[in-house]
Amino acid sequence: MTDNLPGGTFTLAGRTVARLGYGAMQLAGPGVFGPPNDRDEAIAVLRTAVELGVNHIDTADFYGPYVTNELLREALAPYDGLQIVTKVGAVRDDQGGWIHERSPEQLRDQVESNLHNLGVEALDVVNLRVGGGPDGHSPVPGSLAEPFGALAELRKEGKIKELGVSVVDAEQVAQAQSIAPVVTVQNWYNVAHRGDEKLIESLAAQGISYVPFWPLGGFSPLQSSTLDDVAARLGASPKAVALAWLLHQSPNILLIPGTSSVAHLRENVAAADLELPADALAELDTIAG
């Protein structure tokens, strides 16, 4: 069923998905490391998301590590009607640090690990996560030909169905497209952290989805009196307003807000129905200066 999916729909890698999806990162323990505080609640979150119409789920083997993929397999396999998007390009050290690993051999190992932990023969969509920079989450100019080419080879082998890129600039997107089709781009973008508007517009014209990570601010949640004021006036939560603002920006934006709580999940999905009047949008547009 694709009627009344949260936030409307978009075609991602040939499948009609709800624009309001779910990001599994927060199902792991504190710092995205170790097991969940409440495994039963984590399983319930995943199953409730699907019951609410969510059919686009974002994950990675380095969440935990392995934790979110193992939870997904337990809760949702064989993933009927779901688009599971994972990412490679990093691993975790014993202290929970995030280590870049992007050689062809390392990426092959990561793809094989995702296949095993998700329990599938081919991964729906794999994002190559590059970038980093001083804040760890911004594009860094440079070639991604070798790592993306390695994933393109794995796609030819049938281990990956479709490819995307994450934490990239427009030039890197174009370079990736010269190697293999790109079906999605995932970057840091929200009401307070902008800059990708031209990239989003370009992708929309090509029918390519743009997935903003940290739609609610990331590890430091959005703190804005303007956001709070708009939310209070609309009788909504600031989180709901921030998500609704993103859905309003472009029809190719797909959201993946994460939570480890069924109650918060329901609030996030409800944000897909929130209408933002013109004056509220104008106010929100002032947040990023």
From TrEMBL:
Offer one Pfam family short name for this entry: Aldo_ket_red
Q: Which residues form the signal peptide?
A: none
* Lineage: superkingdom: Bacteria
| Gene Ontology cellular-component terms listed | cytoplasm
GO MF terms here are: oxidoreductase activity
UniProt keyword annotations, A-Z: Oxidoreductase
Q: List residues of the NADP-dependent oxidoreductase domain.
A: 19-287
Oxidoreductase among keywords? yes
Coiled-coil residue windows = none
- Database matches in CDD domains: AKR_AKR13B1
Q: Can you tell me where the transmembrane regions are? A: none
Instruction: List the NCBIfam families hit by this protein, alphabetically.
Output: PRK10376.1
* Matching PANTHER family: AFLATOXIN B1 ALDEHYDE REDUCTASE, ALDO-KETO REDUCTASE YAKC [NADP(+)]
Record protein name field: Oxidoreductase
Organism whose genome encodes this protein? Amycolatopsis dendrobii
